[in-house]
Amino acid sequence: MPHDAEHVPWPAEDVVRYRDAGCWTGQTFGQSLAERAAAHGDRCAVRDQDRRLTYAELDTAASSLATGLRALGIAPSDRVLLHLQNSVEFVEVLFALFRLGAIPVMGLPAHRHAEMAANAAATEAVAVIVPSHGAGYDFVGLAQRVRRETPSVRHVITVGPGTAKTDAGEDLFLTPGSLPGPSAGAIALLQLSGGSTGIPKLIPRTHDDYLYSVRRSAEICRLDASAVYFAALPAAHNFTLSSPGILGTLWAGGTVALSRDPSPSAAFSFIRETGTTITGLVPPLARLWVETAERLADPDIGSLRVLQIGGARCPDELAARVTPALGATVQQVFGMAEGLVCYTRLDDEAEVLTTTQGRPMSEFDEMLVVDEFDREVPPGEPGRLLTRGPYTIRGYYRNEAANRRSFTENGWYRTGDIVRVRPDGNLSVVGRSGDFINRAGEKVSPEELEGQLRGHPSVKDLLAVGMTDPALGERTCVFVVLSEADAKPTLGELRAFGRERGLADWKLPDELRIVPDFPKTGVGKASRKALREELRG
Ligand code: J2J
Fold first, then answer.
1. 473 pLDDT exceeds 60?
2. Domain that holds residue 267
3. Cα(57) to centroid of ligand 1, in Å?
4. Which residue intervals define the domain AMP-binding enzyme C-terminal in the entry (predicted)?
């Protein structure tokens, strides 16, 4: 059976427009790194608690590992599933794949069997790359299981400080050979969308479009060679990777500092040790940092100039406390792995910084705010945000069914977010029109969770709904109708069941309500909306 499209291209006239305007430059990430290494090879590019690499060393490592992967039989445009924690190795592997033209699939360290198996199958990945040791979880064991179960997966590759090996123990750092490298229009990586059900929604980002978003982000955040970006959230997440994140910092010639521990005490000392100038957090973590700093007379993190907050709506009250507590400018970032990223600008007035999620980064970003029938709402009214632009995808990877739901015929991406655009162009996010629960910036698909938990013997039927939570933004509540024969399950049992089914921890329910039946919609379907309203009281 033929596959659905890997990459829905932009229309030819837009391609010309984006090229002519200089958005798409024809450069790949591999070339961009080589350029930086030639210009200032001895500057520190990337570091973690264990080691640091200069631009020249990172460049050589990427070529050397790319050569080893090629020798192993991994070819340009093959998919390679990453399951790595924040480390220098993450960056080496990423650039090795960029240089080779193989396509990294950006798995998150919290992913477990359910996500890894689905992503490996959907992409027909040929290899899984995991940490070799000291990671607090058996990444290697999980990858081996995925390989046994997934016909396309031939290799489990383990990486550690300065090492990359096949499971036969062969070293993959080879003397760099010549590699043709991909074209800039090729897919650079596959990002993951929150809210996927059965078939994952994978987001194909090209070198051209992703590098544009990264460059523009770096400009907006005024990154230069003195920038030290602290990757505190998972490196593979679109925010950490590209807004401007790891890739924007490397583009600007700065230093990326990666850590696995974003808790305030560890993070504050990491900031001091590395001279961090900018980092990005989800709102619940930002709150922890702010509260901790408020308790300390002086958090002693004077190098920090910008604290970005994104992934979920930042409460205005929290945004207003950032500068007094941490001494850094707050920057709100409203983005999505599918493309569009909005930023408040560093010199915006305090009112904009603390009450809005900013405005699009590119003059070529298009936005429409519509009602449920796709009719534009009057200016300033809340509505559903649709977007198109030079770095917003036109379709998911091999997933026509999702494309029909998430894109209009004219190529607009349906963000699912409800926004209000102010006369000054800044927008505020006022809600969502469904599909996922935003739990502390991590996205939970109710359908995916329901599908897994319905297998529990005590469950006759089940619906998952997001409820407002003061710390997390939203938490996940499951409503259960019991099967006749069985005893009442506890929340703990349902969580354990979900974990056994291989779900990532953040997707497990936070709350359980047992109900005799579900409220029904007009057409007799169980109504998630009515349950949501019930939770609101
Ligand atoms: C409200 N909702 C937000 C915000 C994201 C930068 C920053 C974040 C992401 C991200 C990203 C929000 N206020 N400030 O990719 O490059 C919700 C929206 C959005 C969804 C996208 C980036 N920032 N959101 O969070 O693909 O609902 O990307 O549609 O994980 O998160 O989620 P994701």
1. yes
2. 261-432
3. 33
4. 448-525
